[in-house]
């Protein structure tokens, strides 16, 4: 006969756990449904952030350029000091050898008491000649000793100076590595942002930049500004020949440039040496505070910390190396924060 047992009821504890889990699942589903999807930044927002990162990268680039310039100078100074020390050591060795020869001669001629030498001498005149030579030898020896001491002091000072510069060089190299890492970090962050754009958005940004450069070029062609000097004109012409060359941080030509690399290279073609960094170039000549007084070839300094520089192109335009991803081109001064011009 079949058994008609009553089904076993779930325990109160199990019912509670299941009910709680179900409620939590419903709540999570509701929250997920109500949560706003993460919004992708717009093309303009990306451009704004990228421009800011490029500015920060350029600030670090100018510091990097300054450290590189300092490193080059230190290496030349250290090399010259080391050459001087080597030559000085040779001179010191020669002086010491001469001093030793004099001491040996004095010992050979001055080993007998002068009164005894006179008594034994068969030729008093010959003795007197020898005695005079001994006095002269002693004076030469004293003079040689003074030269040795002076040379020793000079060598010690030069060695210390070389040692100090070597330490400074090590610090400068550490600063170089730090700034290079900072530049790469900023540029990497900018590239990551650009990678969030679609191909169409990237093309639109590139087209906008090209249009801005074209309009700036047209305004330059319409202008009739005069060059500040023959050399300023020559520097500007040299920079014009590099329009379209890529911006590369730390580069100073002839095929790629950063901002101060372009201006320093251009003036070098005109036979004028100016400092490497934009901050130093800001103090390289007479400052022109009014845009209306600028002449073609003047340096144009931008931003409060002077981290960007270009060459005045006339009619309110500047020729410059803008930033990573761009090329040497014309641009309206008003697109950046103008500080002053510098007439070399």
Tell me what you see in this structure.
A 6-stranded antiparallel beta sheet has the order 1-6-2-3-4-5. α6 (230-240) crosses α7. Helices cover 63% and strands 8% of the residues. It is an alpha+beta fold. The chain is elongated and about 105 Å long. The chain contains 8 helices and 6 strands, in the order ααααααααββββββ. It has helices at residues 12-34, 43-109, 114-120, 124-194, 199-222, 230-240, 259-269, 278-281, and strands spanning 286-288, 299-302, 308-314, 317-320, 329-332, 338-343. β2 and β3 form a beta hairpin.
List keywords for this structure.
8 helices; disordered N terminus; 6-stranded antiparallel beta sheet; alpha+beta; 344 residues
Secondary-structure map with pairings?
Layout: H1 12-34, H2 43-109, H3 114-120, H4 124-194, H5 199-222, H6 230-240, H7 259-269, H8 278-281, E1 286-288, E2 299-302, E3 308-314, E4 317-320, E5 329-332, E6 338-343
Low-confidence region ranges: 1-5, 12-37
Beta-strand residue fraction: 5-15%
Helical content stands at 55-70%
- Rg over CA atoms, rounded to whole Å, is 40 Å
Major sheet: size, sense and barrel closure? 6 strands, antiparallel
* Number of DSSP-assigned strands: 6
Please state the overall shape, judged from the principal axes of the Cα atoms: elongated
List the helices and strands in order. Answer: HHHHHHHHEEEEEE
Distance linking N and C termini: 117 Å
Overall pLDDT score: 81
- As an assembly, this protein is single chain
Overall structural class, as computed from helix and strand content, comes to alpha+beta
Helix tally? 8
């Amino acid at each position: 006969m079949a058994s008609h047992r009553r089904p076993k009821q779930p325990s109160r504890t199990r019912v509670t756990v299941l009910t709680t889990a179900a409620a939590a699942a419903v709540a999570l589903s509701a929250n997920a449904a109500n949560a706003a999807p993460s919004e992708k930044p717009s093309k303009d927002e990306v451009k704004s952030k990228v421009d800011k990162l490029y500015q920060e990268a350029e600030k670090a680039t100018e510091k990097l350029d300054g450290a590189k310039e300092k490193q080059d100078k230190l290496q030349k100074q250290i090399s010259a000091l080391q050459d001087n020390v080597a030559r000085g050591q040779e001179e010191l060795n020669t002086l010491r050898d001469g001093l030793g020869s004099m001491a040996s001669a004095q010992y050979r001629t001055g080993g007998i008491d002068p009164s005894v030498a006179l008594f034994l001498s068969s030729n008093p005149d010959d003795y007197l000649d020898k005695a005079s030579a001994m006095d002269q030898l002693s004076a030469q020896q004293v003079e040689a000793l003074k030269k040795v001491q002076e040379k020793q002091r000079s060598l010690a000072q030069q060695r210390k100076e070389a040692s100090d510069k070597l330490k400074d060089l090590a610090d400068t190299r550490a600063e170089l590595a730090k700034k290079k890492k900072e530049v790469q970090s900023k540029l990497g962050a900018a590239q990551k942002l650009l990678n969030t754009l679609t191909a169409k958005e990237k093309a639109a940004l590139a087209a906008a930049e090209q249009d801005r450069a074209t309009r700036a070029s047209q305004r330059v062609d319409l202008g009739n500004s005069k060059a500040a000097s023959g050399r300023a004109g020559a520097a500007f012409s040299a920079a014009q020949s590099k329009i379209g060359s890529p911006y590369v941080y730390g580069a100073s030509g002839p095929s790629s440039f950063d901002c101060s690399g372009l201006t320093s290279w251009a003036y070098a073609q005109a036979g004028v040496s100016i400092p490497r960094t934009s901050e130093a170039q800001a103090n390289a000549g007479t400052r022109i505070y009014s845009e209306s007084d600028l002449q073609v070839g003047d340096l144009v300094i931008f931003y409060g910390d002077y981290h960007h520089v270009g060459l005045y192109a006339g009619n309110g335009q500047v020729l410059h190396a803008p930033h990573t991803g761009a090329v040497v081109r014309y641009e309206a001064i008003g697109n950046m924060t103008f500080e002053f011009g510098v007439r070399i």
